[in-house]
Amino acid sequence: MFVPCERGGGSASSDFKGFTLLVPAVSVGNVGQLAIDLVISTLNMTKVGYFYTDCLVPMVGNNPYATAEENSVELSINAEVYSLPSKKLVVLQIRSPFIKNKYRPFCQTLLSWVKSSKCARVVLLSSSHAYQRNDEQLLGTPLRYLLTPDLEKAVGGLMQELKWKEMEKVAAYPGINDSEKVLHIPGGGITKLLFTESCSKGIQMAVLLKFCSEGDNIPDAFALVNYLNEWLQIIKSEVNTSSQWKIPSSWRLLFGNGLPPALF
Amino acid sequence: MATFFGEVVVAPSRAGVDDEESAEEAREETLEDRAIRRELEKKREIDVLWTLKSGASAESCAEEPLVCSEFIVAIGHNAAAFLSSFILDSVCWEVVGAVKLWNEWCRTSNTTNVLPTDSFCLFYRLISDPAVLLCQCSCYVAEDQQFQWLEKVFGCMRKEGLQVTILSTCPVADYKTQESTLTLPSPFLKALKTKEYKEQVCCPLLEQPNIVRDLPAA
């Protein structure tokens, strides 16, 4: 499924042994994908390949991270991989929704690619419907994390120090039987499936998610990417962290065109 | 979703998985379910039929891939009509293949003598230069069939030295620009091209944040 780019790097550019892989879930508000856009754009990451898959709706456009005329003409498709070897970071960006009944095969292929490329750990950026929060979740931070047992051993302590909140399990049959608890991530897309599969396959995965609603999700993306930065320290965090993330040129006109002068 | 000015912008379904869909899949699939699912999948399969030199029809071209240097694909009613009006005629072009498919939106017609209002997907070859192929695809190819279409059609062709040109149309309302769409020049043409395409493109390139989706993108 992974097709490397023919660049000077060759096979070296697709050696991700020991790297941290960032993956977005196509979820409510597309927050994970927006956050990944910020990471790729700020760090000026290089495209190293793409996924040739029949699981996502096809799309194509010119370079979404273009900064000038010269670099604006590279084609970009629905699932591409970028890397920054100096930070041992590799990122998958997903740009279109799943085709019906294809999300399971995609998860399987993604996880087997994770294993074969020997990534050290995976961080899944996601979101969940804010309106489905219970009373306790309405208060305090809207950001949550989850760790697979293998990653818990490695970084569980760090999460305690950062005072992060773990995603709560909810009753399987609310009102009837409150003792049986399950993980429920409404609006999270493939988040729950990827997480449970990673647990059973022994993959080190962390899920970072934000409760949000559909609308202007740019502030949610900033919140999520700053949350990620608290842990991974991708960029130097100063007082005003929002201004340090570079918004890509493709975020223009998210909410419609300019006003027609004939209107006035 | 209403924008700050009040115009309504379509925000397509964002969460990748419907909760009901995942619950359905989590249930154990009975033999009957599996049979039904297989039948539905078979119904949505695409068949690419080629008429070879000998006049006999063939479905697979495993032995003899088509040699093609120029492949022009017109997707959608407008692009197909453009080819019908300006390029195709019965003297210089011959029908060499067709795609048969069914989905909720359309079923391709069985005849090659099609009307402009029919849904069809036909392949033509230039009689004077058989390496030039043309495809008129006025039927809607559903999301789950696009990859199949791509693999089955291109699977029959030799890829070395092949140049592909895709003609398609999109509604002007979908075009994102700082100015008003009322002032855009007509005809309004934009292009996307791969690194390998070395020839001159006759119109400006499509700038972000505009994208192309569905079969032309595939």
From TrEMBL, chain A:
It comes from the Eukaryota. It is found in: Nucleus. One of its GO terms (biological process) is proteasome assembly. InterPro entries: Proteasome_assmbl_chaperone_2 (IPR019151), Proteasome_assmbl_chp_2_euk (IPR016562), PSMG2_sf (IPR038389). GO terms for cellular component: cytosol; nucleus. The keyword Protease does not apply. Keywords: Chaperone, Nucleus, Phosphoprotein. The keyword Membrane does not apply. Gene3D superfamilies: PAC-like subunit (3.40.50.10900). Signal peptide: none annotated. Pfam families: PAC2. Its main location: nucleus. Forms a heterodimer with PSMG1. The PSMG1-PSMG2 heterodimer interacts directly with the PSMA5 and PSMA7 proteasome alpha subunits. Chaperone protein which promotes assembly of the 20S proteasome as part of a heterodimer with PSMG1. The PSMG1-PSMG2 heterodimer binds to the PSMA5 and PSMA7 proteasome subunits, promotes assembly of the proteasome alpha subunits into the heteroheptameric alpha ring and prevents alpha ring dimerization. Belongs to the PSMG2 family. This is Proteasome assembly chaperone 2. It comes from Nyctibius bracteatus.
Automatic annotation (TrEMBL), chain B:
GO terms for molecular function: proteasome binding. One of its GO terms (cellular component) is endoplasmic reticulum. InterPro entries: Proteasome_assmbl_chp_1. It holds the Pfam family PAC1. GO terms for biological process: proteasome core complex assembly. Keywords: Chaperone. Transmembrane segments: none annotated. PANTHER family: PROTEASOME ASSEMBLY CHAPERONE 1 (PTHR15069:SF1). Belongs to the PSMG1 family. This is Proteasome assembly chaperone 1.
